[in-house]
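Listing 4. Sequential folding, example run.
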Amino acid sequence: MSGFVGVLVSDQWLQSQFTQVELRGLKSKFASVKNHNGKVTVGDLPSLMVKLKAFSTMFTEDEIRQILGESYSDMNNEVDFETFLRVHLNLQGQATGKKGNPKNSLSFLKASITTLLHTISESEKASYVTHINIYLGDDPFLKQFLPLDPATNDLFNLAKDGVLLCKLINVAVPGTIDERAINTKRVLNPWERNENHTLCLNSAKAIGCTVVNIGTQDLVEGRPHLILGLISQIIKIQLLADLNLKKTPQLVELVEDSNADVEELMGLAPEKVLLRWMNFHLKKGGYEKTVSNFSSDVKDARAYAYLLNVLAPEHCNPLTLDTKDATERAKLVLDHAERMGCKRYLSPKDIVEGSSNLNLAFVAQIFHQRNGLSTDSKSISFAERMTDDVQISREERCFRLWINSLGIGSYVNNVFEDVRNGWILLEVLEKVSPGSVNWKHATKPPIKFPFRKVENCNQVIKIGKQLRFSVVNVGGNDIVQGNKKLIVAFLWQLMRYNMLQLLKSLRSRSRGKEMTDADIINWANRKVKSTGRTSQIESFKDKSISSGLFFLELLSAAEPRVVNWNLVTKGESDEEKRLNATYIISVARKLGCSIFLLPEDIMEVNQKMILTLTASIMYWCLQHAAEEGETTPSPASGNGSIINTPDASPAPSVSGEDENSSLCGEISSLTIDDAASDITVSSQLENEDTLVE
């Protein structure tokens, strides 16, 4: 049976404007008008648009054709799906306006879609440029290029060498990239530039950005809509970083003093937490409406006026609420915020026009400047007790980033909360084992009835059994109840299965045996030995791994130019080990490995994460050899069996996509020490052929 496949759009802002249901429906409509050459032209759009329910009573076909005619001199020009979505979005945005002011709406609509193909928001660009100028203005390397002028394309030109984006990622999540790994010469050669972009994209995935359909060449060319979309995600992650109980335990004040309410808060997306915080203060200030978005609900700026009056009454201006003009009120609101110490990133026009990205950023800045929450020690203590232990948190982070890299329709904010209705697990199963999910028996969120959640989770367990996962004495209700150790165990097996499938694809080319963890260790040892070095490991638990030297030698063996040995320490003290571990992760990502481990995983020799790192480097080497037309002896055969690897240069990401999927998982026996006693992740090597078929 065909599985659910999310519709992916390269422009993340554009994708965020539609639900997956809407995108699938519009994709189907768009495909239905393709001509015999498989193309859709500008001239095809009016007849298609006028049939859509949203516009059938608002615009005539001639009106839509007239609007498009203002933008395109040739109606035979081909348009892509994203252009179609932008036309749809602009028509939708003006439908309400046409009801109230039919004379002006048409001319406004004409002006708004004149650059439909990969339109960028000049307001957003100006805001992001201001952010970059403030946070990177003192950077030792970038200060020679800053400040940028928002009125020019300096931003996109500077982004072409990758340094700016790498530095911005470190502003958002400090320590993500070891800046020693960034190529920072004033003039970079193509290899160095590509390394920076590869490091940037793999690091962006490692902090939670969605980079589906963005490649290094897009960044080299400085494609504005893709660069702006990536920068938008990075800045959003920075601004929302503290909107969780771990970073801001005072947020517990937003809920009742009970475990259930706190768990619900922990499961919310950061922007939802921000909305709840805003409404919490608005209610205290006497604002009667509930703000449910950062666009239409804040256009009149009244909610902002109430919010700032509650948080900073000493800077209150009585005229703010008395003025009748929304633009003037928005200006007074920004003046109030500036007196509080909030940097001005948006204009009154951005508020009135309902720019969701910029309004979200504005509210996040207010939160950081003055959240107005209690510092009651009792509440904070209660919140801290609700947070996970360190190991569980690290594993949750790994699984969350892995799932979000798959390109499924859903986005995970908190693994333990978001998987409890079963839907996301079904999406992941369908991704790693296409056709395994019976969607007729699945219920998509929001799910009103608890038994539907159990049905979804029961199907998850059923598929797990079919894939030979170890799920002894586990039922769907265990997932619904949020049993963290069982969820961790199941997700690890999913990642393991994902890698086995990738290894199987290599085996089909080599006609060799299935690879095992021993094969990967032997390959890594031989690879290092081939360069004349003597470091060797006995297992993925080998304590010598903690120094980092073995992996640096392995990476150097894979690509000698990628490691600067002048930066490598002896790996004896904890500080030296940390420096090496941080460098290893950035060098591996720079090479092309999409990995989600932390320096602590190397220092503490986390068996599972060490395996994924080794396997990802191995996969990159095999792919690189194939790209150069070489052949590599199979580590499984050991005596001349050949692997003809896939045609791709970067290491695969953990997304499981053929061209960019990372090896994340285990090959043979591993027991999850912290899982329940009846959940072990193990496999019998003689049954591996059955397991993956």
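-- end of first protein; second protein begins --
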Amino acid sequence: MESVHWNSLINPKFFTNHRLRSKNRAVLDRRDALLQSPLSLNAVELRRGRTFSTVRISRFSVTAAATDVSTRNAAVGGRDSKDAAIMTTAMSDVERRLRVGKSSAALEQLDIERGVCVPFRKYSPETVRSKVLESRGSVVSLVSRGVEIVWTLGLYWSTLVYDFLVGRDEEVVPFRARQLRNLLCNLGPSFIKAGQVLANRPDIIREDYMNELCILQDDVPPFPNEVAFQIIEEELGQPLEALFSKISSQTIAAASLGQVYRATLRATGEDVAIKVQRPQIEPIIYRDLFLFRTLASFLNGFSLQKLGCNAELIVDEFGEKLLEELDYTLEARNIEDFLENFKDDPTVKIPGVYKNLCGPRVLVMEWIDGIRCTDPQAIKDAGIDLNGFLTVGVSAALRQLLEFGLFHGDPHPGNIFAMQDGRIAYVDFGNVAVLSQQNKQILIDAVVHAVNEDYGEMANDFTRLGFLAKGTDVSPIVPALEAIWQNSAGKGLADFNFRSVTGQFNKLVYDFPIRIPERFSLVIRSLLTQEGICFTLKPDFKFLEVAYPYVAKRLLTDPNPALRERLIQVLFKDGVFQWKRLENLLSLAKENVAKMSNNPALRVKRVESKLDLTDTIKDGARLFLLDEGIRRKLILALTEDSKLHVEELVDVYRLVEDEVDIPTLAMEVVQDLPNVFRDFMLSWSNSVLSDR
């Protein structure tokens, strides 16, 4: 009967795909073995506040260093025994701190996949267990909650089995999907959040259920003002009247984890939003996470074998993100990160945060006086140009994803505002996700491989991003990727949309042992949500007509060496220079600049009005002089088919002549000649020495 249920709810092609999954059983076993190995990273990115730095972490090196210091100092006759004791104590403390909240094997695998290490995290299975079992009444509470969950889900499960037995399982899917959504709402905040996660996980749940869970709302009745005001006073350590001259008597918004009030600061008269956490929500979340993790441990073997995904890993991803949302001091730091990233962008508004008025359960931030995207008619009535506003929104979303690697994880219409001056504003930064530099580069690689129609490398990108276990044979996936991309790209920019591509990708997930990492499920959710907002406000808006020019501009103007390398990969195919691609990139990049500089929605200072290619041309000239391989390819491109390609050069020049200040560029090139000559001589001497 269990197989019946999983076939009905999760994977309609389960039995037909079982044989294919069995072929990858050895790969899944190797993945499981990897998940049981300890963390030993050579180089990972550690996020401290707003900075990322490269660090070396090895759990074993801590103990080894302490032992080595103690032994060495003891050998010199105890002369430095005091120092040895201090060092040993320090090392032991470091080791203890690493083991407090020690990551499970699944969490360690997450760190490796993300390229981001979090040595001191709030979530770990051990931390959750100790929190839940620390009180005497915990066992009774756990049993009671467990019975409630098992009874509720058991009844639902039995209806699915009955539907299958009487042969009506497909015809009642819409009803059962709505029933599941309502069931999750009734089970409380942990299940509401779990449902929102499942809505973006085609590797776990079938598409028709996903579509229903996409509309799962986080709105719940507010808790009493008296309780909320008491929490504010406890967190801030002062009476409410001392901090605020007035505060709204009704909540502005209420969700499963907290609610929001509008207030005015007594000291400055500024309007602010106060976010207050629900009372006693943390013990409830910890209790449910403990039950989720216990259930995942029982189901892990089944999920690995039948579904190709690690149940413990999925729960750990979910638990880590949920506990981050509970910590409002972390949300305050997220706001500061976004403020730093968009400080020079006149098209985006991020609310300021009052850190001196923030605590784990209370967050005070600047009030955003704009129109929520939940009210399209109000935006139109305000006279805001919809096409211009949506162009700003798409550009801001792509900057978060591809430039900063820190993006809003829940950009639903209630969290996005249209400002009267045409800017886009974001609120609710509890759910954000981080993409490491490596992940960003692999995403750009995937775009480059798609442009070059290199589907074999696209499949390898899936492995590098964590969608496939290392060692998986990707050859069966290549034709499927080719079919998806050619079908989508063949429609052109006008008809391309992410939802159709995602629908086709969901079918691919059913056919192969693909797991969607949590950070990329948020990427998919973010893109789909924002595309949905675009279509709601303006049904004929072309998302990709804004996105593609932005990517072209990034490739042409970003000084990052990794992106320079990707630009070369785009411009050369099979060793042949692609003149038409260069012209298309230049045209698209100019289009992006024109759309932003002449945006009718913006009433603030204009953004850049020209495509600045100065650094790109300088880097290209330097590369031509120093890289013999590139130099040979460009000369061949200019003399291909035994003729000079002057016409192509003229076409390219006409595209850039208005964007480049030739005298200024010539002066900068002349000033840079000594450095270029030095690098040329170093390159030449290295080649001479290597020949010998």
